[in-house]
Amino acid sequence: MITIEKIEQMQARMLAERQKGKTIGFVPTMGYLHEGHVTLLKRAREENDFVVLSIFVNPLQFGPNEDFERYPRDFERDHEIAKRAGVDIIFYPSVREMYPHRPSVTVKVHERVDVLCGKSRPGHFDGVATVVTKLFHIVMPHRAYFGMKDAQQVAVIDGLIRDFHFPIELVAVPTVREDDGLAKSSRNLYLSEQERKEAPALYAALQKGKSLIEAGERDVGKVRQAIVHHIEQHTNGVIDYVEIFSYPELKPLETLQGKIILALAVRFTNARLIDNIVMNVQ
Fold it and tell me: Which residues are annotated binding-site positions for (R)-pantoate?
């Protein structure tokens, strides 16, 4: 495994690998890798000849009240995790390398961003789409791997690939969970002992909503209320949102039909947790 920091060097290497006929799997991250990232890397390893991991804390996706400088970074730890996961190249550019001057062109996302987490983070997904566009051109992958824990991000990348005609397959990988169902996240470390006991109720609430739908319920309001009630009964967390939309379009539904997402965000004392279930409704 090698680390490359320069765009020109990275593009040259990727072109060489493609000319050899190798398939390239790509996992873009901001580093501080956890088990969810490892799952993406292992999936990429299984399905491709060559695996690239990018580590880049992207300033364009941080809002004015979000501290870019405080985002956790530990490259030595990430390097060891990547090596064990079978990564071939870590692309590790600096901010100056990725943005040597003020961008004259950025990507503006118009759909799928005015709901869920995007509602309270204006401009965030513009920054995500801009950096992913740059990374796609640099890495030139055949497949790109994203975790469904952030289903809104997956929806945005789906639109980006489709609208810009990237010859890339988007591989959405299921959320990695603890034994009790809680979605794995670095934010779980900020939960108190009592909050950690309560947190699995979030996924249980989503499952309750899913079960209602599978039993024939098609009223959006009734399913949503059942999810809300379960969270309020079993946790002391404050609900940020509980929503049900079409997926990946993220449009409101009058009745439950087709591919949908049940999504939530709940605030505990020092952590805001998100989770979702995507399902098909006949």
Answer: 61, 153
The predicted-structure confidence for 84-112, as pLDDT tens digits, reads as follows: 999 999 999 999 999 999 999 999 999 99
Residue 37 annotated among the catalytic residues of the structure: yes
Which residues does residue 147 pair with via DSSP β-bridges, in sequence order?
Answer: 173
Same-domain pairing of 204 and 75:
no
Domain count, the chain: 2
- According to DSSP, the β-strands at 89-91 and 50-55 are parallel
- Which of these, 127, 140, 142, lies nearest to 48 by C-alpha position? 142
Q: Are residues 129 and 259 located together in one domain of the fold?
A: no
Which residues are annotated as part of the binding site for beta-alanine? 61
Q: How far apart are CA 84 and CA 78, in angstroms?
A: 10
3-state helix, strand, coil in the chain (%, to 5): 45, 20, 35
Could you write out the DSSP letters of every residue in 234-267? H--PEEEEEEEEETTT--B-SS--EEEEEEEEEE
Annotated binding site for ATP: 30-37, 147-150, 176, 184-187
User: Angle 73-276-255 (CA atoms, 0-180°, nearest 5)?
Assistant: 150
pLDDT for the residue numbered 189: 86
